[in-house]
């Protein structure tokens, strides 16, 4: 498989991308990370970009994600909101886990909000759904479908027993 080559190819699998915890609040439009390649104080930011940035991009498709390498002496993260406000997060000498936890607490959606959104996304009132817990117990209750064979017998040309029989 060509996508399983390179450094840490696990980062390109769907299981890994779906495992991301950080989902931004709806008002965030731009997320930028600035760090240097060299230096001990940039290690956490480099690892954060390497391990968590693909998950952030996958989980937040409407947010523009930028990385700025070797432009500033100290690493930082800046979030831009749709109303023009900005949040500056200093990530100097922090580990990748500390950075992620700080972002989860400041700009990430809470677990309760994520659970409520997932329940709303299921849409249990969809007319195509049928079975236990839905509007219709059987698909035969939907207009245009063949009635249940227990209530109305199927015509003989629709039954396999008669269709497969040769005269």
UniProtKB/TrEMBL annotation:
Domain named Ribosomal protein/NADH dehydrogenase: which ranges? 40-110
Recorded hits in Pfam families, A to Z, give: L51_S25_CI-B8
Gene Ontology terms for molecular function: structural constituent of ribosome
Q: Which family does it belong to?
A: Belongs to the mitochondrion-specific ribosomal protein mS25 family.
Asked if Ribosomal protein is a keyword of the record, the answer is yes
Please state what the protein is called: Small ribosomal subunit protein mS25
Q: Which UniProt keywords apply?
A: Mitochondrion, Ribonucleoprotein, Ribosomal protein
Zinc-finger is among the record's keywords: no
Per the record, what is one GO cellular component?
ribonucleoprotein complex
Subcellular localization, as worded in the UniProt entry:
Mitochondrion
Q: Which domain of life is it from?
A: Eukaryota
């Amino acid at each position: 498989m060509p996508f399983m080559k390179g450094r840490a190819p696990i980062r390109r699998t769907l299981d890994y991308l779906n495992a991301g915890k950080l989902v931004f609040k709806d008002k965030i439009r731009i997320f930028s990370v600035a760090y240097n390649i060299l230096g001990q104080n940039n290690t956490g930011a480099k690892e954060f970009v390497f391990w968590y940035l693909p998950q952030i991009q996958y989980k937040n498709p409407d947010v523009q994600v930028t990385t700025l390498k070797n432009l500033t002496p100290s690493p930082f993260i800046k979030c831009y909101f749709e109303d023009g406000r900005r949040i500056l997060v200093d990530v100097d000498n922090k580990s990748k886990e500390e950075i992620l936890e700080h972002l989860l607490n400041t700009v990430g959606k809470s677990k309760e909000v994520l659970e409520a959104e997932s329940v709303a996304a299921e849409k249990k009132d969809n007319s195509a759904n049928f079975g236990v817990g839905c509007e219709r117990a059987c698909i035969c209750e939907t207009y245009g479908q063949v009635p249940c064979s227990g209530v109305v017998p199927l015509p003989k040309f629709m039954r396999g027993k008669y269709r497969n029989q040769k005269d």
